[in-house]
Amino acid sequence: MREGRLPAGARILLTGATGQVGGELVKLLGALGEVVAPAREGMDLANAGSVRETIRRVRPRWIVNPGAYTAVDKAESEPELAYAVNAEAVRVIGEEARTIGTGVIHFSTDYVFDGSGNAPYRETDATGPVSVYGASKLAGEKALAESGAGHLIFRTSWVYGGVGKNFLLTILKLTREREVLRVVGDQHGAPTWSRDLAEMTARVIGRCEATAQGRELADALAKLGGVYHAAGAGETTWYGFAAEAARMQREAEPGVRFAEIEAITTADYPTAAKRPFNSRMNCSKLAEGFGWTMMDWKESLRKVLLER
Hints:
- 42% of the residues lie in helices and 15% in strands.
- By secondary structure, it is an alpha/beta fold.
- The strands form four sheets. The protein has a six-stranded parallel sheet with strand order 2-1-3-4-5-10, with helices on both faces.
- The radius of gyration is 19 Å and the shape is globular.
- The two termini are 37 Å apart.
């Protein structure tokens, strides 16, 4: 077995393959081993029985779970579905993984924190979600940790990419349609490129496999597992992100008229779910543990726009 690859015949079960992170993972994880990426009809995260049956049928060496209920505002009115996908499914994943010795990689969110203060959050800081979405994701974290399965949890923030539905693509569309675009400017964090997350995940699996050679995967995860923060480097606001995207796009298309971007407050843009004001995340543990530094948000933004 080449260092970093899965043993011959071993499989990776990937959820959410049509999502932003899942779509990038489909393209990258195949270099490590066979990837099984069922559609919702084949593995419905809202149905615990479906999740359990799929895992037992596939018997993967790894389960990589970027799949989630991410409709932050809608979750306030349908908490049962949010918890089914973000917590109950993760509990089942953990239980089944513990039984067969499977490693689990699960993605979580900055929304597990209450957003107070100005310092970047560390993995050991107290959680305190202020929305149903955040609470459901935290419940999933706890369920996986309590399952006894070897696992890694990556908390990230403001995920975007060049395809799918995300803040960046919405902004680029609206700047062509409007004269003025008002964007919240008092919520602080960092945009995270979906491909950067996927590349980090592939690196982590490879490192774990290299560490596990000749031993059980659970032994490697006992040493390397736990919660890690994995968000774009640097910091900005939603307004800052939008303004920088518009500036770069103007440079690329000098003959096109784009909307002016104006900053507003959270109070000026009420939503059903409360958002954290501080989504800054300290990612030094990831750098120390796996030698991976997340890309600065401006650098990743430039790369995404060049690919469009």
